[in-house]
Amino acid sequence: MKPSGTLYFFCGKMGAGKSTKSKQMAIDKHAVLLSEDEWLSSLYPNQIGSFEDYLKFSAQIKPLVKKHVQNILSVGTDVVMDFPANTQKQRKWFLDMVLDVNASHQLIFLNLNNEQCLRQIAQRRNEQPERADFDTEAVFTHVTNFFEAPEAFEGLNILEFSGKE
């Protein structure tokens, strides 16, 4: 029997570099990359105008995404998910997903401070002007209020980067 694939997922504040790191990791690991932003913009074009809209639509796609990822992992293919794992509840969803199919996982924790994240958000605003309405200090502050750093008791395989690497 072929071993299950490994699920790679990311934790970090807004602007920490989760999307950039996930794209590179998918290349490095020859893994399937799944991006929440791509799924949401494809399935719900022009329907996400607020954080509440995002939460609603994100919850709607979770059951489909979970089954899809489990099918990929079950055939021995690695998956990199550019979906947030920024709260204990979100991380439990990832952990349950891999435990159900007996797959391994790696949580990559991009542990950058607020100043580092805000610098990267400002740079992203310049490079992707279409994100300027969302990539603001006010949105960063709002979203960061929900952020919970991963803890050992969650039972995750955590690889931490501080941004100094």
Shape type: globular
CATH-level-4 superfamily name? P-loop containing nucleotide triphosphate hydrolases
Helix percentage range: 40-55%
The figure for the number of domains is 1
- Overall pLDDT confidence: 92
> How would you spell out the order of helices and strands?
EHEHHEHEHHE
- Provide the CATH architecture: 3-Layer(aba) Sandwich
Q: How far apart lie the N and C ends?
A: 38 Å
Quaternary structure annotation: single chain
The CATH topology assignment is: Rossmann fold
Beta-strand fraction estimate: 15-25%
Main β sheet profile = 5 strands, parallel
Number of strands: 5
Number of alpha- plus pi-helical segments: 6
Give me the secondary-structure category: alpha/beta
GO molecular function: kinase activity
InterPro entries: P-loop_NTPase
Keywords: Kinase, Transferase
